[in-house]
TrEMBL record:
Molecular function per GO: DNA-binding transcription factor activity; transcription cis-regulatory region binding
Key words of the record: DNA-binding, Transcription, Transcription regulation
Species assigned in the record: Roseiflexus castenholzii (strain DSM 13941 / HLO8)
Cross-referenced PANTHER family: HTH-TYPE TRANSCRIPTIONAL REGULATOR (PTHR30126), HTH-TYPE TRANSCRIPTIONAL REGULATOR CYSL (PTHR30126:SF39)
InterPro entries linked: LysR_HTH_N, LysR_subst-bd, WH-like_DNA-bd_sf, WH_DNA-bd_sf
Domain of life, source organism: Bacteria
Family matches, as Gene3D superfamilies: 3.40.190.290, Winged helix-like DNA-binding domain superfamily/Winged helix DNA-binding domain
Name of the protein: Transcriptional regulator, LysR family
Amino acid sequence: MLTLHKLELFVYVAQAGSISKAADHFLMSQPNVSQHIQDLEAEFGEQLLIRKHRGVELTPAGETLLQYAQEIFRLVAEARLAITDVSRLSGGNLALAATPGVGIYVLPECVEQFRMRYPQFTVSIKTGVTAEVITFLIASQCEAGFIEGELDGIRLPPHFGVLVLDTVQQYVVISHAHPWWNATSLSIQALDDQPVILRQIGSQSRAWLDKFLKSHGVRLRHVGEFDNPETIKRALLAGNAFAILPAYVVRHEVDLGVLRLLPVNDCDLQRQLKLIWNKDWPLSPITYAFLRHLATDYPSVHALLDSSAPRQPHRGRV
């Protein structure tokens, strides 16, 4: 029998190119997934997948079924979005992904405000470097990804949308022990050959900073590399190096007077806060509601909401 569950399994196998990945995702055994695919092949009388040593490939019939199945699930998702009143749902989950700084310092406040309005929902935020956030989106482990920075060198699927939410100023951050503590601003050349604490190689933050400083002929003396901003802050408090961070990362320490922000006065040290999502897949009602809440602080989200609003069905004569 043809069911939505069987089609959902088929779509995941087709997109992942792997029965084992589908089994892991749906918490099923591989033989069970294979049986559902075989049921579909018997239903249509056509082979849908070619089993290979490493994964599977779609046959022409499989390609055709994938297109129809994706359209079916788009319509189901649109219907759910058009009809559902999230305030009346008894439960649900909001799944997000973000780069470390955004996930730790930007989203939690927005999420808690959202949960105060909808306490019946749970929220999960996966954190990782930009490439990992994209991977989470591709694997449908989240519906919305938030990153701070650039997408240089990142293979973004063509059906993914990118929306700039805000411009984020970057600052030189120092502790009281640093000789620049009494300065009010710095030139970019003042950073040359100074001890600095950086994000790890492989992060977009590190790639952006290395490229930016190289373009200004500035070489830094690396004394530490860490994979999250909390560790960087602790290292700053313990020594006399500096780091380059957005203000939201050190807001609490600046208020306490233990860290200080210094602007660079002769160049634009800025990055962008971006939202990434799958344009081909309608947002779930809970994610749509969260983005509508987010639009209060980031008005550019309204453009995404307008484009994601469900279409009105064609009403023919009965």
